[in-house]
Specification:
The complex is a heterodimer of chains A (677) and B (318). Among the domains of chain A are: 113 residues, no CATH class; 224 residues, P-loop containing nucleotide triphosphate hydrolases (Rossmann fold, 3-Layer(aba) Sandwich); 81 residues, no CATH class. Helices cover 34% and strands 21% of the residues of chain A. Chain A has 26 helices and 24 strands. In chain A, helix 5 packs across helix 7 and helix 18 runs parallel beside helix 20. The longest helix of chain A is centred in the N-terminal third of the chain and has 18 residues. The model of chain A has no long low-confidence stretch (mean pLDDT 86). Chain B is mainly alpha-helical. Chain B has a domain of 221 residues: MetI-like (MetI-like fold, Orthogonal Bundle), CATH 1.10.3720.10. In chain B, 80% of the residues lie in helices and 0% in strands. Chain B has 14 helices and no strands. In chain B, helix 1 runs antiparallel to helix 12 and helix 8 crosses helix 10. The chains are: A alpha/beta (677), B mainly alpha (318). Chains A and B meet through helix 2 and helix 4 of A and helix 9 and helix 10 of B.
Chain lengths: 677, 318
């Protein structure tokens, strides 16, 4: 065991509840991190994975304390160490790369200073040597012109660049162990793929051990040698990445993998029922008992132990794992394909729409004129048929949410027209809109924590559209509320509850119920599953699909997650910098030949399979503004032709699959080029 | 950023202009005028005419406003009614005395407030915090005229350590003033310090809980270094504006406290001239106090602009 960098023995961390009970967040964790190894820790929110990662640095959050066990770095117990000694280990021997680099860099200090601080603390280098080292580090994390970067403040960098700075800072002390807490969550797909590739390179180059904490099995698959799966504060599965992801022998991991939508097997994934138990609610038995398909009486009364299985080199906490050993990976792909009844009636016609965020000058405001030759969103033409699901995809800043807001009437369009039900023009001004149209178009937001009023009960939340649009009162109203709640599989029992008493999935169900209560024709879904855990995401996607099949509702579905979009949509529109790049039936858009930007996006998708590596086609530059003229994607296009792309807006071409591609390169040429690579 | 600074200064000047209009108009619409007040029962016939002639009240209001405003710009407020003295001669030493009092309170109050705020935040929910927080809440809730009276009772009357009221001439030098202002300064700075300390405390606590402070700890930055480099600059930035508001509030506090201690400053002049209906003086005081208020807020805004890297960098991009 001399190669162990960190050994954790029977670690239990918890807090004392208001009633004076001791409640554990982490229960009896034991594991070893070996030299040069990358260990992925995966689990849903509340599984204790971040608490475990912080404990590995000897850091326990305010309010929590160590109940028992130890966390040995070589042979020193970090949890019993004095602050003075910890300061010598943190940053020098063990370094952390935080989840949100933007908030983890001190805003008033320059990038160079913050790296220099780590160097000063952990090395004996002189000033000039340190300056050189800073440039070296920034170079190593592939930031352009390191000397200039060092003089910048954190807010002057893009999200991906901030994350790279955090990596550079962590590497400053040449640590033996790097802890990464969701380092790519919140980054765009292409940026995420680039950062992961960088981390892989650094792991190989420096031989550092890494602990990679994430809820994203796709990211875990790309970087880890070994994977630890956590559930409700316990390790339930621990083994080599391939065996965990290809033949998961714990029913939770099995269900988790099944609930992830995948590009390789399109359609709606199976969802897992229920949610993770709150800490302290499980007294006896297996913590996964409530949600397990294989559960039997024994599981309810006795807690399984973590059992090492020789042949698989894997430890598992389950009585019934043998039933899963022979289930081959193909069985994971039990997906339902969507079956939408799309009518040929046009329900929404977006023609030549441009939207500008440019602030009007005082004089222009008086003259009521908007002067912006280069608006955020330009020239959007989309027709949507009744009963269809249209998805808008693109990275942050692509204008997808902006378009949704305009349809909903929350943002004024600068040019163009949005027509509802063939010929009824939707007014630009929300106050001027007919209440009938307001009812017909409903919006579901990304984060139910913010879109539900915390001071309203579920009953009040769902009653509002019913009272407003249908004037219901008294018993009739109550009856209807219960009916709507049952549709989203929440019973009468939820009426008196407040949003804070609900889980993330339940909150989003309430938001869905509120939208459906208005009996809308069109529902606009703005990243509705991004804030949810994967198992909950699958359940919400399935629910949305069922409701749609029942009511024939039309969806406009905005998401950055290409696999989710593939699962739920009939047609996909790809946006870059507020301009359409490609639009067509989803199965065709996801096939080559396609617009170079679609190709870049598809290449960057992370599948929960260590053998499928992302293809990095283009640089992950962040553009702040769309180009003044020419093709919107010219700045990053790997297949740029030349001046024509810079000067002329590309024409629409119809691909052989029926998808429209807006590019100067002929479809036949795209086909050739993309097949070669 | 240059434009931002210019914009702020212009906005300040516009505010002052509007204030001067309002004070002038306020005095104008009051029934009666300076001459009727001054002449009382003799306010009729030739005497009144002569007075109008002398004070220049027989020209239209806008002309009078322009000549008054022009005078103000040159530190000339016209004549007071009561003594027929030039107002700026009356004001000069009183402004100085009040400034001495206010700046002494600020110089003592702000550092104490910062110290208390930081100590209570870093030792949050522990003994130092509990004691200091209780005391500050107490001193925040007691109005200054009560705390001033209590101070006189205890320190001046029972203990006989310091004079209870200030008996110096208006044109006393600073060194003559100093021993007399100890009690007024304590009375003024008590409330101000308590307010600021609470503000600093919550700001520091918020920053201490931020991701970047956790990151600094995990980077191995020693505790006090972390406090000084990573916490305080970010915590004190939002406090600057509150400090400015508190200082502006202090002007009002000074008025009340000066009266209690019989201090020869602006505060007593405000009370006296209002009760004498000495309108030119009231007008002059209003514009002076407004200028100080606007000035302090301007300084606070500009300091925030200078210190906030987000705003500072606008300069680079433009």
């Amino acid at each position: 065991m001399d190669s162990a960098v960190q050994t954790i023995n029977n670690l239990t961390i918890g807090f004392t509840s208001q009633k004076g009970k001791q409640i554990s967040i982490l229960k009896n964790i034991s594991t070893t991190i070996k030299k040069g190894e990358t260990v992925g820790i995966v689990g849903e929110s509340g599984s204790g994975k971040s608490t475990l990662a912080l404990a590995m640095m000897g850091y326990v959050k305010h309010g929590l304390y160590t109940i028992s066990g130890e966390c040995l770095f070589h042979s020193n117990n970090l949890l019993k160490m004095k602050n003075k000694d910890l300061e010598n280990i943190r940053g020098r021997k063990i370094a952390m790369i935080p989840q949100n680099a933007g908030q983890s860099l001190t805003p008033n200090l320059k990038i160079g200073y913050q790296i220099d601080e780590a160097l000063k603390l952990h090395t004996d280098l002189k000033k000039e040597e340190r300056d050189k080292k800073i440039s070296g580090l920034l170079n190593k994390v592939r930031l352009p012109s390191p000397e200039i970067m060092a003089q910048r403040y954190p807010h002057e960098l893009s999200g991906g660049q901030q994350q790279r700075v955090a990596v550079a800072m962590a590497l400053a002390g040449n640590p033996e162990l790097l802890l990464l807490d969701e380092p790519t969550t919140g980054l765009d797909v292409t940026t995420q793929a680039h950062v992961l590739e960088l981390l892989n390179f650094i792991a190989k180059d420096t031989g550092t051990s890494m602990v990679y904490v994430s809820h994203d099995l796709g990211a875990i698959a790309q970087v880890s040698d070994r994977v630890i799966v956590m559930y409700s504060g316990e390790i339930v599965l621990d083994g080599p990445v391939r065996s965990i992801l290809k033949n998961p022998i714990h029913p939770y991991t099995f269900g988790l993998l099944k609930s992830i939508p995948k590009l390789t097997s399109p359609g709606l994934p199976d969802s897992m029922s229920g949610s993770q138990p709150q800490p302290g609610t499980i007294k006896t038995g297996c913590s996964f008992y409530e949600r397990c398909n294989l559960a039997e009486d024994n599981c309810k009364n006795n807690s399984p132990t973590l059992e090492y299985i020789d042949g698989l080199n894997t430890s598992v906490r389950c009585f019934k794992y043998k039933e899963l050993i022979n289930v081959k990976e193909t069985n994971l792909d039990t997906v339902k394909s969507i079956n939408n009844h799309v009518l040929q009636n046009e329900i929404l016609d977006i023609s030549k729409v441009s939207i500008s965020y440019a602030k009007q000058k005082f004089i222009d405001q008086l003259l009521n004129k908007i002067d912006d030759s280069n608006p955020t969103v330009q020239d959007i033409n989309i027709n949507i048929n009744k009963g269809e699901t249209l998805a808008l995809v693109g990275e942050s800043g692509s204008g997808k949410s902006t378009i949704l807001k305009s349809i909903a009437g929350l943002l004024k369009t600068k040019d163009g027209m949005i027509k509802f039900d063939k010929d009824k023009v939707l007014s630009n001004d929300l106050k001027m809109r007919d209440p009938g149209f307001l009812r017909a178009i409903q919006l579901i937001f990304q984060n139910p924590d913010e879109s539900l009023n915390p001071n309203h009960t579920v009953e009040e939340i769902v009653s509002q559209p019913l009272r407003l649009y249908f004037g219901l009162k008294g018993d009739e109203l109550k009856q209807k509320i219960i009916e709507v709640l049952e549709k989203v599989r929440l019973g009468e029992f939820y009426l008196t509850r407040y949003p804070r008493q609900l889980s993330g999935g339940e909150k989003q169900r309430v938001a869905v119920a509120r939208a459906f209560a208005a009996k809308p024709d069109i529902i606009l879904c703005d990243e509705v599953t991004s804030a949810l855990d994967v198992s909950v995401q699958a359940a919400v996607l399935n629910l949305l699909q069922e409701l749609k099949e029942d009511f024939g509702t039309t969806y406009i579905f905005v998401s950055h997650d290409l696999a989710v979009v593939r699962a739920i949509s009939d047609r996909v529109a790809v946006l870059y910098q507020g301009r359409l790049c490609e639009i067509g039936p989803s199965k065709n858009v996801y096939q080559l030949p396609s617009h170079p930007y679609t190709e870049v996006l598809l290449g960057a998708v992370l599948e929960p399979d260590p053998d499928l590596k992302p293809k990095l086609v283009a640089e992950d530059i962040v553009e702040e503004k769309p180009p003044e003229k020419g093709c919107s994607f010219q700045g990053r296009c790997p297949r740029i032709l030349g001046d024509i792309c810079k000067n002329e807006v590309p024409p629409w071409q119809i691909g052989e699959n029926g998808n429209s591609i807006r590019c100067h390169i002929k479809v036949e040429d795209l086909k050739k080029q993309q097949n070669i690579n | 950023m240059f434009f931002l600074v210019i914009k702020r200064i212009l906005l300040g000047l516009i505010t002052l202009f509007i204030v001067s209009l309002i004070t002038f108009a306020g005095v104008e619409v009051l029934p009666g005028d300076a001459c009727t007040t001054y002449l009382e029962r003799q306010a009729f016939g030739e005497a009144l005419e002569a007075c109008y002639q002398r004070l220049g009240l027989n020209v239209p209001a806008y002309e009078r406003y322009i000549s008054w405003a022009w005078g103000v710009l040159q530190w000339d407020f016209g004549y007071s009614l009561s003594g027929e003295m030039k107002i700026n001669e009356v004001l000069g030493p009183k402004v100085k005395n009040s400034l001495v009092l206010a700046s002494a309170s600020i110089l003592i109050g702000i550092p104490i407030a910062l110290l208390l705020g930081i100590v209570t935040a870093l030792w949050r929910d522990r003994l130092p915090d509990i004691i200091i927080s209780t005391v500050t809440i107490f001193s925040m809730t007691i109005p200054e005229f009560i705390s001033a009276t209590l101070l006189i009772l205890i320190v001046a009357i029972w203990l006989e350590w310091l004079p209870g009221i200030v008996i110096v001439p208006t044109d006393a030098t600073v060194s003559e003033l100093l021993p007399n202002i100890i009690l007024p300064v304590i009375a003024i700075s008590m409330i101000m310090t308590a307010h600021m300390a609470r503000m600093v405390r919550s700001s520091v606590i918020q920053v201490m809980a931020s991701d970047y402070v956790q990151m600094a700890i995990l980077k191995g930055v020693p505790y006090w270094k972390m406090v000084f480099r990573h916490v305080l600059p970010n915590a004190l930035l939002p406090a600057i504006n509150v400090v400015a508001l508190t200082i502006a509030w202090l002007l009002g506090g000074v008025v009340v406290t000066e009266v209690v201690f019989n201090y020869p400053g602006l505060g007593r002049l405000v009370i006296e001239s209002i009760s004498n209906r000495d309108l030119p003086v009231v007008q002059a005081l209003a514009i002076i106090l407004a200028s100080i208020y606007v000035g302090i807020n301007l300084i606070a805004d500009l300091t925030t602009l200078m210190l906030n890297p987000r705003l500072k960098s606008l300069q680079i991009k433009k």
